[in-house]
């Protein structure tokens, strides 16, 4: 079998930023208007009032202070509360493919490759803009690759599921060089009118180039990967192609993002480190030999507890850096962004573990060693 190497990564976050104060002001204006308009029904106990939010609530619940977004004005407009993105003619590059290329191009440049050097493209993200043709096929066409492509979705673990598949294909000789990209436009999925989730997500795109080891120096040896699922609907997004049919029965039906935050926290904090530690045991990697872990940026309490259970020691910014203060939860792109931002100081031979966890529940893990 041929070992695989992460040759390069790339990421991009939009320049537009919404801080907590702006988000809370918008959300509370919406909540205040709703409660005033429905005061009689609320007083009669027929409907529940919309609770107010605060910057303190957001920081305590998540650690997030800002998030980068693809389109800001629509999110803050209380008559909309979703990004405003004009539809494009079919002959133009799609929004998500264009968004993906913001990270794909830097990754190709860092690796020293043209798109024609890539023989497979995997779009691994929480959602794709359309059902078919695949966004991965569009990206493959943009870069000039003539291999295969497919879209993959496993929520916030998608990028590491893509890495797990790429590692297996390379080790088995089915592919030589693969591009994994995670264009996460999460503010299009989020429901900014719900207090439980209105602050969580930001937008970002990340990419990895994974290839067969040809002896060339540089990059990161992939020592092992693992992916594992456990069914749960505690974190669920109902947006999909069946919505149009559901509205034929209930014209007022609105799909939404829903989560039981306490349940998700309890379940994932127990499950995610178990998957990572199992992978580590399979390859003979002891916690004390792991210098750093790069985790999906869900919320700071989850990062603290999962890092401690993987590493066997308290989390610090050195052994498990966090980036969610600035970017929020950018779904599967976050673990790749974290890795790229916080790995340059590692020395050849030092080892780290990536771990991402999301709805499903799905957990992906990878152990890497700097070459």
Tell me briefly what this model is:
The protein has 371 residues and is α+β, with helices and mostly antiparallel strands.
Please characterize this protein's 3D structure.
With 371 residues, the protein is of the alpha+beta class. 35% of the residues lie in helices and 22% in strands. Strands 5-4-6-7-1-8-13-12-11 form a 9-stranded mixed sheet, with helices on both faces. Helix 6 links the parallel strand 4 and strand 5 (148-152). The longest helix is centred in the last third of the chain and has 22 residues, at 261-282. It is globular and about 70 Å long. The mean pLDDT is 97.
Features:
22% strand, single chain, 371 residues, two-stranded antiparallel ribbon, nine-stranded mixed β-sheet, alpha+beta
